[in-house]
Each structure stands twice: as structure tokens, then as C-alpha cells.
Amino acid sequence: MEWPLVIATFVLGIVLGYVGRTIVARNHESTSKGKALEQTRLELSQHKQEVTDHFEGHYKQLAELTEQLNKVNKQWNEAANTLAPKNKAKPLPTFSAAEPSDAPLSEADEQLDGDNVIIINQNN
Description:
Layout: H1 2-83, H2 107-110
């Protein structure tokens, strides 16, 4: 009578050990996946911030360039008005810096508009 009880206890111990190991493994796997997911989310938010900072920096540089170009064009127009005959002088346009928007450009915005093209010298 002792051997069947020992064998049953041994089999019951193996089954309970397998079930316990499976539960612990699943818990550990979900914890490691949660940590990896959180790490990936953190990296994504950092990348988004870097991209936003990059475009803000470029916007500031382009705004400064536009301002400098407007100064040059203004000086050119003033000189052309005083030195060239009135009918020959074509004023250079001034540019305005548009505020950056978070909305993506539409297809119409991405295409070149023929009216906005500036031809500097038509004779050459």
C-alpha cells in the first residue's frame, strides 16, 4: 500500500510543478513584454520630440533668411527707384514668413504655382 501512495504523490508533484512553472513563466513573459513596450514608447516619444525640435530650428533659420532677403530686396528696390528710369525698374517682391502649422500640406500646396515664380533676368 505504500508504493501506490508514493507513486501518486510523485505524479501529483510533477503535475503541480509543471502548472506552477507555466504560471510563473507566463507572468515573467508578460512583464518583460510590458517593459519592452514601455521602452519602445519612450523611444518613440523622444524621436518625435527630436523631429519637432529639428523642424522648429529649420523654421527659425528660414524666417531669418526671409528677413535678410527682404532687407536686400528693399535696398535693391530703393536703389532701382533712384538710379533707373521709372519704366525700366521692376521692383523685387518681398516675402512673408507664414506661421508653421501642424496640418500636413495638401496636394495643391505642394505643387508650384506659376504666379509665384520669380524670373531674375529674362534677357540671358
